[in-house]
Design brief:
Blueprint: H1 5-11, E1 18-20, E2 23-25, H2 35-49, H3 54-57, E3 58-61, E4 64-67, H4 76-92, H5 102-112, H6 125-137, E5 142-145, H7 155-161, E6 169-174, E7 177-184, E8 195-198, E9 213-218, E10 224-228, H8 243-248, E11 253-263, E12 267-270, H9 273-281, H10 285-315, H11 321-346, E13 349-354, E14 357-359, H12 362-387, H13 404-413, H14 421-435, H15 438-449, H16 454-464, H17 467-479, H18 483-492
Parallel strand pairs: 1-10, 5-8
Antiparallel strand pairs: 1-2, 3-4, 6-7, 7-11, 8-9, 9-12, 10-11, 13-14
Length: 493
C-alpha cells in the first residue's frame, strides 16, 4: 500500500505526547511549530504515490505495491533502484530532512535481509520479519532512538546520588511483553512519524542486559513522551524570509518512557548486550541506512553548489577568475559525493549477506560517511565567502513592500544590473537560511554528528577494511627482492 499525504496527516492525530518546554502539543498537524514540516512530509507521501512516479518510487512484492526503500536488493539493478528512490525523496527536501521515511525503513529492510543474525534465544527473527512486513504493507514512517543520553554514560554519578541511571531499560516483563522506562536520544522526525524503533547502535558492556532492548513502539504509546528541542519554524516571519526553516524543520526529540508496555511481538532483541548492536553491522542494516544518508547529503550538496553559483552571479563576481576557481572547487565537491554514491553500487557486494541478497559496498559507504561528516562546515564556508556582507544588507523582512514609499526606495536602491530588488533579497534570504540562521546552525551541528562521533565512523571503516589485502600488497612488493642481492651489489661497489 502506498499511503497518501492526507492519510499520513490523519495518522498523526493520534494523541501523542509531544512537548515544547511545558506546552503539550495537541495536534502536530496544526501547531505552528510543526504544521509546515508535517505538510512537507504529507507532500512527500503524495509524491511517492503519484502514478507518474510509480516505477521509480515503488515495487511489487507479495501481491502489493510498496515504497521502493523496502526493497530487499537481489541485484545491482535493485541497488540502483533504491538509490534513485532515495534521490527523489532527498531532492524533494533538498537534503534537509535527514530522517525522512526512507531512512529507518532502510535499516529495518537491511536487517530483514539477514534475519539469521538475530540469534535465539535473545533475539526474535520472526518478530523482525513480521514487523518489516507491517511497516512495508502499511507504508509506515518509522524513526529511531538508538543512543543513550550523554549523562547516562557516567553511571557512577547516579550511583553516588542513589538515583536510577536515566538510560532506557527493561524494568519488568510478563507473559504479554516487557515494560521499558528511561530516556533515549535522539528521535529526529518523531513528531511526524508513526513508530519509533528503540535500539543500540553504540556497543554496550556485556552486563548491560536490561539496556539491551530492541523494539518498536507507536508514537502515541501510553507513557511515552517526546520532548522537542526549541522549534525554529515559529520564528520564521514568512516562507519568503526563511524558506528552509519554513518547510524543513524536521524536529529532534528526546524520548522519555514512563513504564511503556511493549508486546512480545514488537520485541526483537532482549537481554544480549553484544547482539543488540551486532544486528546492525552483521546485516546490511547499517549500510543500507547510511547509504540513504550519503544520497541525502548529495542532494544538499547540489543545493549548495547552485546557491554558490547564483550568489556569484547576483553580485557580478562570477566573471572574476578567483571566484570562478572557487565555483570549480565547490563543483568538484559535489562530483566527489556523486562518485562515492555511485561507487557503492558499481562495486556492490554480490556475495554478502547471502540468502540471494546483495549489499552496497560497505567500505565505500563508510568512506563517504567519513567525508560527509568531516567536511560540511567547509562546504558551507564556501557559500559564506561568496555571500560576503550581502546577507546583512537586506531589509529585515519582506514586509517592507507593504509601505508604498519604502517599497519604492527598496526597489530603486536594492536592484543591481543582475537582479531586481525582490529577486536579490529572495536569493540572499535563502542563502542566509543555509549558512547563518538557527536552522542553518542546527544543520551544521547535525551533519557533523548524525552518524555519531568521528571515532565511531572511523571504527566502522576499520572494521570493514580488508587489512590482509593491503598487507599483502606490501608483502608482495618486498618479496620481489631480497637482502642478498643488495649485499652483493654493495660488495661489488
Amino acid at each position: 500500500m502506498l499511503r497518501t499525504g492526507k492519510e499520513h496527516l490523519q495518522s498523526l492525530r493520534d494523541g501523542r505526547a509531544v512537548y515544547i518546554g511545558g506546552e503539550r502539543v495537541a495536534d502536530v498537524t496544526r501547531h505552528p511549530a510543526f504544521r509546515n514540516a508535517a505538510e512537507t512530509v504529507a507532500a512527500l507521501y503524495d509524491m511517492k504515490a503519484d502514478p507518474a512516479n510509480r516505477e521509480a518510487m515503488s515495487y511489487e512484492e507479495d501481491g502489493g505495491r510498496h515504497s521502493i526503500y523496502f526493497l530487499r536488493a537481489r541485484s545491482r539493478e535493485d541497488l540502483q533502484r533504491r538509490m534513485v528512490g532515495h534521490r527523489r525523496i532527498a531532492d524533494f527536501t533538498h537534503g534537509m530532512f535527514g530522517r525522512s521515511p526512507d531512512h529507518v525503513a532502510s535499516f529495518i529492510t537491511g536487517m530483514a535481509m539477514k534475519p539469521d543474525a538475530l540469534k535465539a534465544p535473545c533475539a526474535h527473527a520472526d518478530n523482525l520479519l513480521a514487523y518489516y512486513r507491517t511497516a512495508r504493507d502499511n507504508d509506515l514512517y518509522v524513526v529511531y532512538a538508538v543512543v543513550p543520553p550523554q549523562a547516562a554514560r557516567n553511571p557512577e554519578f547516579y550511583q553516588r546520588q542513589n538515583i536510577p541511571v536515566p538510560t532506557l531499560r527493561v524494568v519488568r516483563e510478563d507473559d504479554a511483553g516487557v515494560v521499558i522506562a528511561g530516556m533515549k536520544m535522539l528521535a529526529t522526525g518523531a513528531a511526524f512519524a508513526n513508530d519509533i524503533w528503540i535500539g543500540n547502535v553504540i556497543p554496550l558492556a556485556p552486563d548491560q542486559k536490561n539496556e539491551a532492548i530492541t523494539c518498536a513502539i507507536p508514537c502515541n504509546a501510553p507513557g511515552l513522551q517526546l520532548w522537542s528541542r526549541q522549534p525554529f519554524a515559529p520564528g520564521a516571519m514568512s516562507e519568503f524570509d526563511s524558506p528552509l526553516t519554513w518547510r524543513y524543520d524536521e524536529s529532534d526529540c528526546m524520548l522519555i518512557c514512563h513504564d511503556v508496555k511493549v508486546p512480545w511481538e514488537r520485541v526483537f532483541v532482549h537481554g544480549d548486550a553484544l547482539l543488540s548492536r551486532d544486528i546492525y553491522v552483521k546485516t546490511p542494516s547499517h549500510c543500507f541506512g547510511n547509504h540513504q544518508s550519503n544520497v541525502r547529503y548529495w542532494s544538499k550538496m547540489r543545493l549548495l553548489v547552485g546557491l554558490c553559483s547564483k550568489i556569484a552571479q547576483a553580485t557580478g563576481a562570477d566573471q572574476v577568475p578567483a571566484v570562478r576557481e572557487a565555483l570549480g572547487r565547490v563543483s568538484s565537491y559535489e562530483a566527489q559525493i556523486a562518485g562515492m554514491v555511485n561507487g557503492q553500487i558499481n562495486a556492490y557486494e554480490a556475495d554478502w549477506p547471502g540468502n540471494g541478497y546483495v549489499c552496497f559496498n560497505r567500505r565505500m559507504m563508510y568512506g563517504a560517511l567519513e567525508w560527509c561528516t568531516q567536511n560540511y562546515s567547509k562546504f558551507v564556508d564556501e557559500l559564506r565567502e561568496l555571500c560576503g556582507g550581502g546577507v546583512f544588507q537586506m531589509p529585515a523582512n519582506i514586509s517592507v513592500l507593504r509601505d508604498p514609499d519604502l517599497a519604492r526606495d527598496f526597489q530603486t536602491f536594492w536592484q543591481t544590473p543582475q537582479n531586481d530588488a525582490v529577486t536579490r533579497m529572495k536569493l540572499f534570504k535563502l542563502a542566509w537560511d543555509m549558512v547563518g540562521s538557527e536552522f542553518a546552525g542546527r544543520h551544521l551541528q547535525y551533519e557533523k554528528f548524525y552518524a555519531g562521533a568521528s571515532f565511531i565512523v572511523r571504527n566502522h571503516a576499520f572494521r570493514e577494511t580488508d587489512w590482509a589485502a593491503f598487507n599483502a600488497i606490501v608483502d608482495g612488493l618486498m618479496a620481489g627482492y631480497d637482502h642478498g642481492g643488495a649485499l652483493g651489489k654493495l660488495a661489488a661497489e
